[in-house]
């Protein structure tokens, strides 16, 4: 592969990654019954709990983290975003101070109209959807990492959307 081909390939990878980020926002809008206009979805008046800010689990690295980028996109669309990450809170706050940071999962999802799981931490994969359902305003979840057991969440009464899943 020549240098030009490699650059084109990397550009395509970047475009796919950007589309995945905006796809999470679109799934959120769909679950919330919000229409998308020319400027994108309007999520004003909604509270979204975001689980995950780091690039991957078991790190505090938020550099180019899709999770943090999606949380910021949700905020830019008008949502009141409450975020929790087991290790990346300080670094995330430095990069995206406009978001609200919470000390734990329960606080991040409390009264949320929708939850987005954006980093596949074991704490999030193994979270009890029944217990979380008692804390939220609406049982809607976007699984941005396809790390949740969709059948278990649906059985607990959640509207579930995963990336590339029906």
Radius of gyration: 16 Å
How many β strands by DSSP?
8
Helix content: 40-55%
Distance between termini?
Answer: 36 Å
Give the biggest beta sheet. 6 strands, parallel
- Report low-confidence residues grouped into runs of 5 or more: 9-16
Q: How are the strands ordered across the major sheet?
A: 5-4-3-6-7-8
Order of helices and strands: HEEEHEHEHEHHEHE
- In one word, what is the shape? globular
Describe this structure in words.
By secondary structure, the protein is an alpha/beta fold. The chain has 7 helices and 8 strands, in the order αβββαβαβαβααβαβ. The protein has a 6-stranded parallel β-sheet. A two-stranded antiparallel sheet has the order 1-2. Strand 3, helix 2 and strand 4 form a beta-alpha-beta unit. Helix 1 packs across helix 2. The relative contact order is 0.16. About 5% of the residues have low confidence.
Give a nutshell description of this structure:
The protein has 166 residues and is an alpha/beta fold. The chain has seven helices and eight strands, in the order H-E-E-E-H-E-H-E-H-E-H-H-E-H-E. Helix 1 packs across helix 2.
What's the topology here?
Layout: H1 3-31, E1 36-37, E2 40-41, E3 47-51, H2 66-76, E4 80-84, H3 89-95, E5 100-101, H4 105-109, E6 114-117, H5 122-125, H6 129-133, E7 140-143, H7 150-155, E8 159-162
Parallel strand pairs: 3-4, 3-6, 4-5, 6-7, 7-8
Antiparallel strand pairs: 1-2
Helix pairs in contact: 1-2
Characteristics:
globular, 40% helix, 6-stranded parallel sheet, alpha/beta, 166 residues, single chain
């Amino acid at each position: 592969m020549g240098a030009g081909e490699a650059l084109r390939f990397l550009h395509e990878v970047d475009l796919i990654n950007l589309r995945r980020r905006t796809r999470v926002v679109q799934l959120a809008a769909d679950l919330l019954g919000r229409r998308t206009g020319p400027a994108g979805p309007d999520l004003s008046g909604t509270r979204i709990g975001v689980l995950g800010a780091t690039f991957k689990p078991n790190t505090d690295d938020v550099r180019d983290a899709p999770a943090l980028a999606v949380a910021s996109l949700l905020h830019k669309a008008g949502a009141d975003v409450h975020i929790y990450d087991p290790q990346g809170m300080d670094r995330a706050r430095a990069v995206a101070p406009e978001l609200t940071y919470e000390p734990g999962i329960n606080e991040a999802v409390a009264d949320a109209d929708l939850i987005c799981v954006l980093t596949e931490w074991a704490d999030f994969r193994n979270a009890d959807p029944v217990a979380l359902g008692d804390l939220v305003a609406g049982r809607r979840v976007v699984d941005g990492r396809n790390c949740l057991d969709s059948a278990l969440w649906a059985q607990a009464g959640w509207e579930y959307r995963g990336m590339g899943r029906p």
